[in-house]
Specification:
- With 472 residues, this protein is mainly alpha-helical.
- The protein has three domains: 6-172, no CATH class; 179-304, no CATH class; 335-472, no CATH class.
- 74% of the residues lie in helices and 4% in strands.
- The chain contains 15 helices and six strands.
- It has a three-stranded antiparallel β-sheet, covered by helices on one side. It has a three-stranded antiparallel β-sheet with strand order 4-5-6, with helices on one face.
- Helix 1 (6-34) packs antiparallel against helix 3 (88-100) and helix 8 crosses helix 10 (270-301).
- It is globular, with a radius of gyration of 27 Å.
Length: 472
């Protein structure tokens, strides 16, 4: 004979109450999702927005697409983001589970926010995948839409609920709320980027900006004249072996906006931030563009593509800045090593790291990429404007090896293991990128490729350091 305790009875009552609340809310939300006014006010506008965002993402991938309301047309195929494809009821069902769950109001709000971000993000990924792949491979629409897409949404929604439910009652904030300082700094940087972009655009179109552009062209010609016979006529710089017209588009660079935005996160007062911003704005513009123009003309004089110089110069500038910040972080902020020792370690790594990176780039360019082209039996060359795709494994190898082997908290064996794992992962990513470009005939926006070139290794490195610090 068994006797039911008060605790088990109370637990059963709570579970029963949760189920009753869930089914009641699910029924209400199902009715709500089917009402005409809710569709007109929420679902249909979101379907239009989803189609618009998908079109923008396709543009970043270099895929031409026409949009009309919630309809997308590409490669002779039309797709409609129907109301039932927005994921609205999936989120409402998740909301019913979370609201009915025995948790505090704050925990429920966190769960709803995480669920909304997850459902919206996965649904956009699902729409992009279906449109891109179904337009390339006829007959794949239904399998992508019904099987793959539905599985993606269901798995993602279930995963975010399990993640949230396990945290209920845990007094610790989720990881994305624990580091408020990090989010504050990131928000400041984004604000600084938007502010700097607006100021930079106004400057370039102002009389002062036009004067600075002429000054850059004039002084670049003077510097080139120190090494070779140079003649300047307006925007045209002519040397003994080449001639280049320095158009105004070549005298603007988003790289400067990224640099200027860092003034917003400096650990000084706002008055000093803006004063330093004003003092550095014009010299940064002048010095950066004079150096870049000289490099571009020098490349052309050597029979190379000037666009390669423009692309290469900006990426190298960003890469050097981020690596210098890494040295500063470990030596000055973390105080794990003296700055002199850190600089010496970096200098000793220059030749072996650059040599290894060039070897990796050569292997991809001469062996691996031609093999993929032969394997896929495609009759196109790899999309590579300004050689930015070809340079990706080189930049990844340089930044990753420098970051790993200048991290003072690891010994040589630990650094070697992490270096090999990351090196393999980054090259696997590059291989998948090249495979996708060739198979789907993509032409990703150059700045998307450049962003991966520079920031991907640093993003992985930061996540690795944070993960190890959290487990320590």
């Amino acid at each position: 004979m068994s006797v039911e305790t008060d605790g088990s009875a109370a637990s059963d009552n709570r579970a029963l109450g949760w189920l009753i609340r869930f089914w009641a809310l699910a029924a209400f939300f199902y009715w709500l999702d089917q009402t005409t006014w809710f569709k007109a006010a929420v679902v249909t506008p979101y379907a239009y927005l989803s189609a618009l965002i998908t079109a923008k993402l396709l543009f970043l991938l270099g895929v031409e697409c026409q949009i009309n309301g919630s309809s997308l047309a590409l490669s002779g195929t039309s797709f409609v983001v129907a109301d039932s494809c927005t994921g609205s009821f999936v989120f409402l069902l998740l909301a019913a589970v979370i609201i009915a769950f025995p948790a505090s109001v704050r925990e429920k709000l966190i769960g709803l926010a995480a669920g909304l971000v997850t459902v919206v993000g996965l649904n956009l990924l699902r729409t992009l995948m279906i449109v891109l792949l179904a337009s390339r491979f006829s007959g794949s629409f239904w399998s992508l839409h019904i099987i793959v897409g539905q599985a993606l949404i269901i798995a993602g929604t279930l995963g975010v609920f399990i993640w949230w439910a396990r945290r209920v009652g845990n007094r610790r904030d989720p990881s994305f709320l624990q580091h408020r300082r990090l989010f504050y700094t990131a928000s400041l940087y984004v604000a600084g980027f938007l502010f700097s972009y607006a100021c930079y655009s106004l400057f370039l179109n102002s009389p002062l900006g036009v004067w600075f552009k002429k000054l850059v062209i004039s002084h670049a010609a003077v510097i080139l004249g120190l090494f070779t016979d140079t003649v300047r006529r307006g925007q045209v710089i002519t040397t003994a072996t080449s001639s280049i017209r320095v158009i105004h588009g070549c005298l603007s660079s988003p790289v400067l906006v990224l640099f200027l935005a860092t003034f917003f996160i400096l650990p000084i007062s706002w008055s000093k931030r803006f004063l330093l911003y004003l003092i550095c704005f014009f010299p940064l513009y002048y010095l950066y563009h004079v150096a870049r123009t000289v490099a571009a003309v020098g490349f052309m004089a050597g029979g190379r593509d000037a666009n390669f110089a423009y692309n290469f110069f900006g990426q190298v500038a960003l890469l050097k800045a981020l690596l210098f910040f890494s040295i500063y972080y470990w030596s000055v902020i973390r105080k794990s090593i003296t700055i002199n020792r850190q600089i010496i370690r970096a200098l000793l790594l220059i030749l072996p790291v650059i040599g290894a990176a060039l070897l990796v780039g050569w292997g991809w360019h001469t062996v691996a990429v031609p093999f993929l082209i032969t394997l896929l039996e495609v009759k196109i060359t790899l999309y590579d404007p300004g050689h930015i795709v070809r340079l990706m494994p080189v930049f990844h190898a340089i930044s990753w090896l420098f970051l790993i082997f200048t991290t003072p908290i690891w010994n040589l064996r630990q650094a070697a293991v992490r270096g090999l794992i990351g090196f393999f992962g980054l090259n696997l990513f590059y291989g998948l990128l090249v495979f996708s470009i060739l198979l789907l005939d993509l032409a990703p926006h150059p700045w998307l490729i450049k962003s991966f070139n520079i920031f991907l290794p640093f993003a992985i490195y930061i996540m690795m350091i944070r993960a190890e610090s959290n487990t320590a």
